[in-house]
Design goal:
Elements lengths: L1 H6 L2 H33 L6 H29 L4 H13 L1 H15 L16 E5 L12 H11 L7 E4 L2 H4 L3 H12 L4 E2 L11 E2 L4 E2 L11 H25 L1
Helix pairs in contact: 2-3, 2-5, 3-4, 3-5
């Protein structure tokens, strides 16, 4: 295949790339809507994990294919740029999990999930509760920028509120477990999937699974924390209004 691409004319390479990308994009769309159907039917915020992972991988594969084709051409004509082409390929492949996370988050929110912060697709467990509490400064957090950002994003969280945490592995567990989690969520909790990266650093304090910070998997995407804060902020305002009415 590579030899054919190298010897093919530029026009032929473009046609081959366009056909392959079109097929992969079609597969991405099919997988995406399959995930939406799952979420809509069983009302699980993170049920789209597996489908989103496949969809993100398909999309990354489209980009990877283009890089592969260009790499074959560049390697044949410009050996000096061979290493740079390899690095570009690695970057594209590494984007698949991020694409999958974005797809899962957006799909879950549009299908009625209160808060969705998808877990790493390769692991994760279902924990009964996760308590958001005030973050404490620790000596090993010596990155000033990280600390400032973390404090800013978590300062307005109403600490002490409890919500359900759920990950990709939980979706593959028996239905009774899922029913229990869903029932508990319907009674006022929030079904949440949190990033595996939150386990590291100051995200989760082992072994009691108390959350000191809510941290998003993709560091540049802060909306996940904002969703958590806004949701609990609204709930807190409602509770305060109800208390004021009772006093009156």
């Amino acid at each position: 295949m590579i030899s054919k691409i190298i010897t093919a004319k530029d026009g032929q390479v473009m046609v081959m790339a366009a056909v392959a990308v079109a097929v992969l994009m079609l597969a991405t769309v099919m997988v995406y809507y399959l995930g939406e159907t799952m979420v809509a039917k069983i009302r699980l915020a993170n049920a789209v994990d597996a489908s989103a992972q496949a969809g993100g991988a398909c999309l990354a594969s489209c980009l990877n294919l283009v890089v592969q084709l260009n790499w074959a051409r560049v390697s044949a004509t410009e050996p000096a740029h061979r290493e740079m082409a390899k690095q570009a390929q690695i970057m594209v492949v590494a984007s698949a999990p991020v694409l999958a996370i974005l797809v899962a988050t957006e799909t879950g929110l549009r299908n009625g999930a209160a808060v969705v912060v998808p877990l790493n697709f390769l692991g994760g467990v279902a924990m009964p509760d996760l308590e958001v509490r005030e973050p404490k400064k620790r000596w090993w957090m010596f990155w000033k920028e990280y600390m400032v950002d973390a404090q800013r994003r978590t300062h307005n969280l109403p600490y002490g509120k409890r919500f359900i945490i759920m990950g990709g592995a939980a979706v593959r567990q028996p239905l009774p477990l899922l029913s229990k989690l869903r029932d508990k969520s319907d009674r006022g909790g929030v079904m949440v999937a949190i990033s595996e990266s939150a386990v590291h650093g100051s995200g989760l304090v082992w072994p009691d699974f108390k959350a000191s910070l809510v941290k998003f998997h993709a560091g540049g995407i802060g909306e996940g924390v904002d969703w958590v804060r806004n949701y609990f902020g609204e709930k807190l305002n409602q509770e305060n209004k109800e208390k004021d009415k009772e006093k009156d």
